Amino acid sequence: MPIRPQDLAQWWNRAPDGQVVVDEQGVILAVNRCVGEWFGVPAGALVDTPASDLFTPAARLLYLGLVGYRLAERGRVEEVHLELSLPSGQMLPVLCSARRIDYKGARLSLLGLMPIDRKHRLERELLEDREATDRLLAEKGAIIAELQSLQATLEARRQELEALNRRLDHEAMTDALTGLPNRRRFDRVLGGLLAQVDTDALGGGFTLALMDVDHFKAINDRFGHAAGDRVLETLARLLHDTLRGDDLAARVGGEEFVLLMPSTSPEDARRPLERLRTRVQQHQWQGIPVTLSIGLAGHRPGDSAAGLLERADRALYAAKQGGRNRIVVG
């Protein structure tokens, strides 16, 4: 059976919950009989009054803020807890749902008000929670900005930590006195060279030079440890000046230094090391006699790090036994 429009209008007027039609300015265009009965006036008496006047001051803020915002953004609102301010001075808790309706070119709002069968105290607490939530929403921009600032701070701290780790890694691989790589760095590079030779990635093999300051203990005993440190620092600079592209010089003991020379035979390594030995001998050491003994060992197939170092050490020992201030190939 079809339902006539006029019958629908009567049913709307007799609905058991409140119905309010509001225009774009928030002014009431129509209410049903239920709303009029709540306020003790004919339904028509509420027409042309602001819809926000139906609510208590606290609920009015929530209606104008949350309900209005959601209608504008989403076109609908579901079950917002509000309180009607009745002429008797009492408050009537209601659930307000609303829909945005386009009617003859105008954007109207239909409010549905359903009474809540709960204690007023609980309803007020819920309204306070809603107000707190609304304040949090209003502060959303500030919170996001603060989070972005914290994120930027964390990123800066992360970069600082990475820089600190790099510095610590460098310090862990560097001799504090001379600034040259230390034994740990040397062992790592030597292992890499041996791996490259084993895979034919390093053409021509490499040479290891082990060198020692002659009579260094006597220098310390006679001239003092500060003078001995200056000798080691100066020797490190002279050694660094000898380096070619991929060479690595390191301090591996008190007065002991090592030089790794990739793609270099012992014969080819001897020429620059002879120049280094001569420079050390001829350098002005402020009255301190400083010379250098050097033992060379070229890589052989199947060499281990320990075996290569042992051959270089034997060559260095031979240089010492042969009168010092010389180079011996092992």
Automatic annotation (TrEMBL):
<dbReference type="InterPro" id="IPR035965">
    <property type="entry name" value="PAS-like_dom_sf"/>
</dbReference>
<feature type="domain" description="GGDEF">
    <location>
        <begin position="204"/>
        <end position="330"/>
    </location>
</feature>
<dbReference type="GO" id="GO:0052621">
    <property type="term" value="F:diguanylate cyclase activity"/>
</dbReference>
<dbReference type="InterPro" id="IPR000160">
    <property type="entry name" value="GGDEF_dom"/>
</dbReference>
<dbReference type="GO" id="GO:0043709">
    <property type="term" value="P:cell adhesion involved in single-species biofilm formation"/>
</dbReference>
<keyword id="KW-0175">Coiled coil</keyword>
<feature type="coiled-coil region">
    <location>
        <begin position="144"/>
        <end position="171"/>
    </location>
</feature>
<dbReference type="InterPro" id="IPR000014">
    <property type="entry name" value="PAS"/>
</dbReference>
<dbReference type="InterPro" id="IPR043128">
    <property type="entry name" value="Rev_trsase/Diguanyl_cyclase"/>
</dbReference>
<protein>
    <recommendedName>
        <fullName>diguanylate cyclase</fullName>
        <ecNumber>2.7.7.65</ecNumber>
    </recommendedName>
</protein>
<dbReference type="InterPro" id="IPR050469">
    <property type="entry name" value="Diguanylate_Cyclase"/>
</dbReference>
<dbReference type="Pfam" id="PF00990">
    <property type="entry name" value="GGDEF"/>
</dbReference>
<dbReference type="GO" id="GO:0005886">
    <property type="term" value="C:plasma membrane"/>
</dbReference>
<dbReference type="GO" id="GO:1902201">
    <property type="term" value="P:negative regulation of bacterial-type flagellum-dependent cell motility"/>
</dbReference>
<dbReference type="InterPro" id="IPR013656">
    <property type="entry name" value="PAS_4"/>
</dbReference>
<dbReference type="Pfam" id="PF08448">
    <property type="entry name" value="PAS_4"/>
</dbReference>
<dbReference type="InterPro" id="IPR029787">
    <property type="entry name" value="Nucleotide_cyclase"/>
</dbReference>
